[in-house]
UniProtKB/TrEMBL annotation:
Region described as Disordered: 1-25
Compositional bias per record (Polar residues), positions renumbered to this chain: 7-20
Species for this entry: Cuscuta epithymum
The protein's name: DUF7032 domain-containing protein
Keywords assigned by UniProt, alphabetized: Repeat
Gene3D superfamilies: Leucine-rich Repeat Variant
SMART domains: ARM (SM00185)
Domain DUF7032, residue spans: 32-140
Organism domain of life: Eukaryota
Residue spans of the ARM repeats: 248-290
Family annotation (SUPFAM superfamilies): ARM repeat (SSF48371)
Pfam families xrefs: DUF7032 (PF23005)
Amino acid sequence: MTKSEEMNSDQQMQHSSTELPPSPAETLDEISLLLSQLLASSLSIKSFTSRWQVLRSKLSTIKCLISEVSDSPHWSENALLPMLLPNLLSTLLRVKTLCLHCSDPAFVPGKLLMQSDLDMAAGWLSNLINQLDVLCRSGVLRKSTAIVLSHPSSTSIREDLVLFVRDLFTRLQIGGVEFKMKALESLVQLLTDDEKSATVVAQEGNIGCLINLMDSNADHPIREQAVIAVSMLVSDCDLACKCVFEEGGLGPLLRMLDSESLAVKERAAMAVECITSARENAWAISAYGGVPALIDLCKSMSVSAQIHGVGAIRNVSVNEDVRIALAQEGVIPVLLQLLISGKASAQNKAANCLAIMASSGEYYCDLLLNENALQILLRFLLHESSNSDTSGYVLQAIYSLSTFDDLTSKHLGSSSNFIIKLADLIKHGNLMTQYTSASLLANLEISDRDKREISGCMYGLVKLMDSSKPDGMQEIAANALVSLLTAKSNRERFVRDEKSLMKLSQMLDPENDLVSKKFPVAVVSAIMAGWWSKGRRKMLVAAGVNAHLQRLSEMEIVGAKKALQRLSGSRLKKIFTRFQSCLPGYEGVNGGGV
């Protein structure tokens, strides 16, 4: 080579190195031309005809999509096309090489190798078709980039929000790492700024794409952002929660619980708790092998992870199969430890789960008692300052244990501190706590001394008898009150309490149809049990009890006739009293009568 030729060669290389890459418009024109050539030349290929038929079909689809792109008014503004078009051109050039080889009679490739190359080409084209289709269907090519990329506010119209969401998911599906990361950050920002946007994301976005990004093979920052986005979606929107579950998102989220990143672990735990809040999703925890992961989460040093972990366990414990798996994996001591030392929210959820376990049968009650659960529950109820809901769950667990184990029932009945606590909860607890407390008072064997000690809760029980909800409250309250009235001094105290007496009379009134009459009638019978004074009888009569009983007796209300006879005094008793008064030395009983 002469010196002149070397200089020309150097100039050409220098020129090619400084030459700008073709514009998207030029690349698009080259792609369109190449597609037309390939579709025409591939028709004459005689070898591997079935495979080339598949390739021609895909090339034809790409040609249609490219036409749609070029017809879109703002396609040149889209940031994804400068990446997508060169990839498409490069793939088409490879297909062109294959076309030339298969058209050349002199070219003799290995048959299996060529089949493999053609199959790979079909896969490349399918991937490109999917990317182009996503881009075209998103609608972003028909809008100016300035409009599409404007971050919507809470006051934006729905059309703008839909377009923004579609653009984000287009970038997530076909963009590179940088595009995906920026799209995820924008999605998280959108969900942070406007919770209502979660519904639009669920309706217009590709939830399956987000779930794929949580896969362990994904880039770590992308995976972390995807978990954050999913956790925000499921916590903001029931529809999104349903979509994530149906797209198989629970499995990747459970795997994320083992992440070394605390932020990922906590976000995944939040999402799992939200998804399992739907009872119909509970079974999937066992199907994905997630029970051990949830139990380990409750042992985490992260308070947030603990709270969401025990919340998810609480949610899924309603399913019998999952409940058995939880028990077999040792969840009960973990729950008891959270009740002892967890934060208030974790304590509440742990207590709820323990109540569910205890109410599920003898097997679970035995497990609880073997773990010293009764003492832990009693200690919490009597000594811990907790919210009423948590106390209610603890009390429900104690009640269930008492119904399945006689020794537990006897122990509770003999605990004065516990009985006094029940009386306090009847006076100051919420409705469900009052219900459970009354149930325990009605069923436990309590000493007369303790009954006298808690006589101050009798008016509370009378008020509960007047409550229509929950179902069974009237009967439970009446039974508890009747139990307390077996102590003589409590009967005396009851009739001296004007509020209790008037409330009882109102419930006996036949015009009051809110209360089943057999319950207040049973209370009247309990008041009149044993020896009692004319003074008490006068108080009941003065309160209108006698008149109400007469009407109830005529209505044949169970127990009303007997109570009326007891209150009025039978004719035989009157004759006997008069006969006694005629006997020498008879002075009667102080206060008179029997």
